[in-house]
Write a structure and sequence with these properties.
The protein is about 15% helix and about 40% strand. The chain is of the alpha/beta class. The chain has a 5-stranded mixed beta sheet with strand order 1-2-3-6-5. It has a 5-stranded mixed beta sheet with strand order 10-14-13-11-12, with no helix packed on it. Strands 4-7-8-9 form a 4-stranded parallel beta sheet.
């Protein structure tokens, strides 16, 4: 028994040594360098409002696939909206989010994936799951100007995070007519 426990510890130690907690766009991740995977982890100051869980993140020029959310990562957080950009939901533990979040927050998922989320472990505990066409890529880049602001319905940064106004650089904009455009502000 001691040998098995020691063997298990020796196998897990390299994985723990490769995990570094970093903050990327307001979300904390444990990065596993060897496998290029990221796990969403808790924020020491607690998350609030809206959180976006992307398919991947870039840190120091390396792309990491977001493959999990740690236990208790959002426990005790006051969230109104959780946006998952993953078309294939990974299982999460029921303790990942607080009961308040499961009952009161809206889980927004990519169009065509609602049934996957309703069946996925952990995600199915959300009372309110809706599909939303979340921008997750860039097809055409156009320049824009401030007078177009009246027709903008929603504005996102490159990581899919909802922002209140255009920012310098590339913005992904959902127009009031339902179309999505990329707007560059110099």
């Amino acid at each position: 028994m001691k040998k098995q426990l020691l063997l298990l510890l020796m196998m897990l130690l390299p994985m723990m040594a490769n995990a570094d907690a970093v903050e990327i766009d307001g979300i904390y991740y444990n990065l596993v360098v060897r496998t290029k995977q990221a796990e969403v982890t808790n924020n020491p100051n607690k998350y609030f409002g809206e959180v976006v869980i992307p398919e991947s993140v870039i840190y120091d020029g390396t792309n990491y696939s977001v493959t999990s959310i740690g236990d208790y990562a959002f426990d005790g957080c006051e969230l109104q909206e959780v946006i998952s950009m993953n078309e294939n939901p990974f299982d999460i533990n029921i303790e990942t989010f607080s009961n308040n979040t499961f009952y009161n927050a809206t889980l927004c998922v990519p169009v065509g994936t609602i049934e996957k989320y309703r069946a996925a472990e952990g995600w199915k505990a959300f009372s309110n799951i809706v599909e939303r066409d979340v921008p997750n890529g860039i097809q055409n880049v156009k320049t824009g100007n401030e007078e177009q602001m009246a027709s903008y319905k929603e504005i996102y940064d490159l990581n899919g995070r909802h922002i209140s106004e255009l920012q310098r650089g590339l913005n992904i904009v959902r127009m009031s007519d339902g179309t999505t455009k990329q707007v560059v502000i110099k």
